[in-house]
């Protein structure tokens, strides 16, 4: 098992005309597309992949998980 590695999910569409996407992109990348942070990666994933662990958000999931750990 791997511990929390600092991943976060930011729910914005991959749409360069979307203002929220542009804000995230501007925060993480220089105008030339290079990363502003050496230890940060900016990935775009499909909804299907993003929803792979959606069951983790169900009420009680983590309590049940801890009980069986």
Structural commentary:
- With 69 residues, the chain is an all-alpha fold.
- The protein has one domain (19-67).
- It has helices at 19-28, 47-50, 61-67.
- The mean pLDDT is 86.
Task: Produce a short descriptive summary.
By secondary structure, the chain is mainly α. Helix content is 30%, strand content 0%.
- Outline the low-pLDDT stretches: none
Total DSSP helices: 3
Which geometry do the CA atoms define? elongated
Rounded mean pLDDT is: 86
Overall SS class: mainly alpha
Distance between the termini: 11 Å
Tell me the series of helices and strands, N- to C-terminal. Answer: HHH
Extended strand count: 0
Estimate what percentage of residues fall within beta strands. under 5%
Number of domains: 1
Radius of gyration: 16 Å
Instruction: Please summarize the sheet with the most strands.
Output: none
- Report the helical percentage: 25-40%
Give the topology:
Blueprint: H1 19-28, H2 47-50, H3 61-67
Comma- or semicolon-separated keywords:
about 70 residues, mainly alpha, 3 helices, elongated
